[in-house]
Amino acid sequence: MKAILRQTIIPLAVIASVAPLWPVYGTVWAGIVVLVGVAVGTAIAVVAWVRRWSLLTTALVTLAVFFLLGVPLAIPGKAFFGVLPTPDGLLTLASAIVLSWKQLVTVVTPVASYEALLVPAFVLTLVAAVSGVSLALRPQHRALAAVPPIVSLGLAIWLGPVRGFESIAVAAVVFVLLVLWFAASGPRGARGVLRALGVVAVPLLAALVLVSLFTPAQRSVWRGLVEQPFVLQADTSPLAEYRAYVTGDGANEVILNAAGLTAGSRITLVTLDRYNGVVYSVGGTAADFTRIPGTVPVDSQQGLEVDSRITIGTIRGPWVPLPAELGSIAFTGSGANSLTNNFFYSSLADTGAVMGGLRAGDGYRVTGVAHPLISLNNLSGLTPGTAAVPVPAVVPDGIEAYVTRNSENATAPGDRLRNVFSALLSDGYVSNGGVGETPSRSGHGAERITQLFTQVPMVGDGEQYATAAALLARQVGFPARVVMGLVVPADASAAATSSEAGIALSGASMTAWIEISTTDGWVAVDPNPEIRPIPDRLPDAPTTVSRPQSGAEPPPVDVPRVQGDTPPDSAGGELTPVADPLAGMLVTIAATGATILLLLGLLASPFLTIVAVKARRRARRRTADLALDRVDGAWTEFIDSARDHGIVLSDSSTRREMAKRVPQERSVALAKLADRAQFAPGMPTDAQAEEAWRSVDQVREGLDAPLTKWRRLRARVSFASMRGSVLGRVKDRIQAARRPRG
What is the pLDDT of residue 663? Predict the structure, then answer.
């Protein structure tokens, strides 16, 4: 019975050690992989012990079993009938031994059984079970059997999520199992196991409580430190290319074909959330592009479910047009695997991108939930949300005045937003600046937006109106961002949009709108005025410039670069900072040091409390209002200091008798001063009170002088002077209970 108990503890510890990976996988199949890995590893170790296999033989058998079971377990999509490994599956499994570890921390969780990302879990459990049980079966190496579960626990935490208290609880469970293992391996049997449980239970419970209270919500793990392979330029702004799409030859180029959409549906090319006064760019909280495991959870609380098929025509940059907040995406065609491996998604921006860009003919199927489009009349019922959006670095002149002028009669944020947007749609006229149109400058820098609000009539296009609307919404109190994308024409027939070929959308369908954060989530708002005749231009309204305006034109149209591309010689703009491994190591060291300091602080807290109580007691005595009370406090402080230094004083003795027991020069003088203050006619002076406290300080210094630093510290944290307190009374009762009776 004891042997069976002993041999089951190590496999249980291995199973528990990989529990931190559960939030990463989030699927029952991962649990099956772990159980099979531990069971098979345990079986290999037992057979190797019975048959007396060498280390080399055991390793070769483990490797063979790994390749036999690895594909159906860790890469089930590449197994014949879900059981037999395919040649392609074996090649993927072999490469995954090295590559899947980093891939696991660069994909949005939960990854489920995506590609070969279950391989790390299978490798961890199989190797830990084989090595742990093998060591446990050999008495000369039995103590080392605790190492594999500890190593697998550390790797599982390092590969796990950034947030969570679960890893601490898992570590406690593994710790308890290993204590039981050592207890069961000893000569005391079941009694030793019970004793070990009793010894571990109390400090473990206390540690869990302390850690749950003081451990930060985020920890330093590989997922938070690894450098993401997809990094945009800090000033990437496809909005600067707006005119290239909607005018000239670009207006007739087919950007994509969309099927499964309805007239008026919107397809997001990119979401822009940071404004620096020159361009709106993808560089704020939305610049968190990571790989996704095929499907991602949808956060939208409202909106229309979308199931669309898109085929790419001509498109600039790495952007992947998406008709909804992404639920799933599946690439089709001969390049599907490459596109899947190079697809990245920002869940904060609902924007997708492919490293290397899309090419004509690439296709994919998208499901998700489209953000609802809110009409002007329904803006009144909106309440600002709490989404994190960077504050604009520059607010163009004219924005604040426009909000004040058009919302002065409204108080609720929704009413103010409706009034401001109503004015914008009423005052604005649309011109893309093309041939035969009213002149209209491109760009959306602060100087151009200021001109938009000062020019009469107000003339601009989607580039300027979307930028202006987002800045106006921010002034009203709504977090807002600019979206550039395409709109399915209102006259598109249902047959055309739902057919397999879909409907062709050209550059003329390109537009820009905004999304604002509300308590119900993100909603879309179209700030573009209706196309109507533009009246003759009037002289510009005078404008008082309240701050310097940037006269810089938007940067030249450029295809956004990603890390790994070779930038042109003339390219400007600095790259978004990426995680530095050295900095990550320093952060880890700092976090470890902070944890150690925290634990040391917790251990020292009882003693620090005593020191603090004594300091407060001394301050209260020394700052008493009456000089008599300060002298009496000095004498009491003298007695407490003597007792803390181990001198026994009787409460029935006189002050002079007590003073003679303290071998210091000022002891007797302090006793005489205290007697005079107590019994002589009149009240002591402030000078006498100060003299009494100087005597106390001199006595204390004299008592400390011959002592070592350790004994001085003991005197500072001694309970002897606190016998009248609650702690002192508790100590007295404990000492009384220990004295022999009779």
Answer: 84
Strand 280-281, strand 274-275: pairing: antiparallel
Contact 227, 459 (CB under 8 A): no
* Lowest-confidence region among 432-441, 494-503, 537-546, 634-643: 537-546
CA 292-294-298 angle, to 5 degrees, is 75
- Residue 317 and residue 575: Cα distance in Å, rounded? 16
The predicted model gives 55-60 an average pLDDT of: 90
The alpha carbon of 200 is separated from its chain's Cα centroid by a whole number of angstroms, namely 33
Position 355, amino acid: M
Q: What are the tokens at 693? A: 């406290």
For the beta carbon of residue 447, count every other beta carbon within 10 angstroms: 20
Residues with Cβ within 8 Å of 33's Cβ and at least 6 positions away in sequence, in order, are 73, 74, 118, 121, 122, 125
Tokens of 257: 């074909």
What is the rounded CA–CA span in Å between residue 461 and residue 431? 6
Nearest to 64 by CA among 273, 136, 586, 56: 56
Within a 10 A sphere around the Cβ of 478, how many other Cβ atoms? 27
Query: Whole-angstrom Cα distance, residue 134 to residue 55?
Result: 10
Contacts of 568 (CB under 8 A, 6+ apart): 558
Q: Which residues contact 692 (CB under 8 A, 6 or more apart)?
A: 630, 631, 634, 635, 670, 673, 674, 677
Query: From CA 399, how far away is CA 546, in angstroms rounded?
Result: 12
Q: What is the pTM of this model?
A: 0.54
The contacts of residue 131 (CB under 8 Å, 6+ apart) are: 45, 147, 148
Closest CA to 318 of 551, 560, 514: 560
φ, ψ for residue 670, nearest 5 deg: -65, -40
> Please, which residues bridge with residue 481 across strands?
515
pLDDT tens across 101-119, in order? 666 766 656 666 667 778 8
Centre a 10 Å sphere on the Cβ of residue 337 and count the other Cβ atoms it contains: 11
CA distance 432 to 508: 11
Report helix, strand or coil for 153. helix
Nearest to 133 by CA among 43, 233, 225, 235: 43
Contact between 467 and 280 under an 8 Å Cβ cutoff? The reply is yes
